[in-house]
Design goal:
This protein is an all-alpha fold. 75% of the residues lie in helices and 0% in strands. The chain crosses the membrane at residues 7-32, 68-87, 99-120, 146-171, 192-211, 252-272.
Amino acid sequence: MEPAFVWMIVPAALVFTVLLTIPLLTGVFYTFTNFQGYGDWRFVGLTNYTNLLRDDIIWGSYLFTFKYAIVASVLTNVIALGLALLLNTRLKAQSLWRGVFFVPYILPVLVVSYIFSYLLTNNLPQVGQALGWQWLSTSLLANEDLAWLAIVVVGVWQSVAYTTIIYLAGLQTVPEEIYEASALDGAGPVRRLWSMTLPLIIPYLGINMVLSFKGFLGVFDQIVALTGGGPGTATQSISYLIFKNGFQGGEYAYQTANGIIYFLIVVILSFAQLRVTQSQERV
């Protein structure tokens, strides 16, 4: 191998090893201990993993996280596809509208979440009181049954922009001649969308679903800014639980084991999504 290639690879390999591989292996090691993040520790074997299976708080965080990720992913992709179809038409000031719809993505997540927190706590209840809607007359963030929907709204609002850009890129790869031929055959807009557009942008649909689902599974910033995991533990996501109890609650080894399981689940689901998408491409 040429020396130049070695000097290009070695620094990257060292950074990857020091910043990723060693911390990962160290974390895996501590999952077999009772380490609290400080002080002494001893080996406990698989105790942390078995306790995870009997922990109702852990199960609750997984239920909330997956419910949130599924609903938010579906809404994000449906809305983004609709916007992409609209922005792909011959609109006046098309570039301007594309820029406007991309603005939410470049805003800091915490800033957006704090703004929505103010609106949901102060402005929206006033609207609910004016309309006489009891469920909307108080802050949604204080409602144990509806707080997760408020988080979905914030997450979807900010994620739609990036997903729309990917769909726009996919739509621009569809030859215009296909639409012209289908119009001559009498196919309507819905028929063209279902039978021509969607099959031709399946790769973009697949990557958007994988990126959306993986991103929403890691929801953290919105939880911190909007609810802090409350009311109670109703909106406590997996990542927020790992952070709070692992670094602040003295459950370092226990929550690290939770993180390892969480990581494996995300990897398996991501590969499964890609396999399903690739099988649709071959069809």
